[in-house]
Amino acid sequence: MTLFDRIKKIAKDRGYSIAEVERRSGVSTNYMYQWKKRNPNPETLASVAKVLNVSVDYLLSGEEQKNETTKKVNIEELLDGTAMLTDRDGELTDSDRAALRALISTYLQSTEGRERLKKYSNMELDDNGGNGDD
């Protein structure tokens, strides 16, 4: 699989077109199609990898680099990032937080959730199931 084919597949899996990836990564329209014949510069490739939430290694080889610094998911940190989804000036009520915490925790503890988390974000649940409890 070529670099372009891999990017196209990942983009499709994420619900993006090539044009959307180009727009989000700041490259000109149809620029990525040139990658069928030549490799992009490292900065551009890094920008595309960021948009697709994968490593540059994964784009180039199809294999994720083994990394000892896998991040741990903390559901409380995720909840802080979801506050913008409310219509209350970015504030989650305690019941909002509890409901979202339960949904996220249940999903991340499922086989599919763990696999997707590892595949797409190089993260895994923290030792407390992601809930941030000590």
Question: Summed up, what is this model?
Answer:
This protein is mainly alpha-helical and 134 residues long. The protein has helices at residues 3-14, 18-25, 42-52, 56-61, 75-82, 94-109, 111-121; strands at 71-73, 123-125.
Give the topology.
Layout (H helix, E strand, L loop, with lengths): L2 H12 L3 H8 L16 H11 L3 H6 L9 E3 L1 H8 L11 H16 L1 H11 L1 E3 L9
Parallel strand pairs: 1-2
Helix pairs in contact: 2-3
Describe this structure in words.
With about 130 residues, the protein is mostly helical. The chain contains seven helices and two strands. The protein has a two-stranded parallel sheet with strand order 1-2. Helix 2 crosses helix 3. It is elongated.
Which short descriptors sum up this protein?
134 residues; single chain; two-stranded parallel sheet; 4% strand
- How many β-strand runs? 2
Query: Which strand order spans the largest sheet, edge to edge or round the barrel?
Result: 1-2
Summarize the amount of helix as a percent range: 40-55%
> What distance separates the N and C termini?
44 Å
Which regions contain 5 or more consecutive residues with pLDDT less than 50? none
Q: What is the C-alpha radius of gyration, as a whole number of Å?
A: 18 Å
- Give the structural class: mainly alpha
Give the overall shape: elongated
The overall average pLDDT, rounded, is: 76
What's the main sheet like?
Answer: 2 strands, parallel
Q: Count the helices. How many?
A: 7
Order of helices and strands: HHHHEHHHE
How much beta, percentage-wise? under 5%
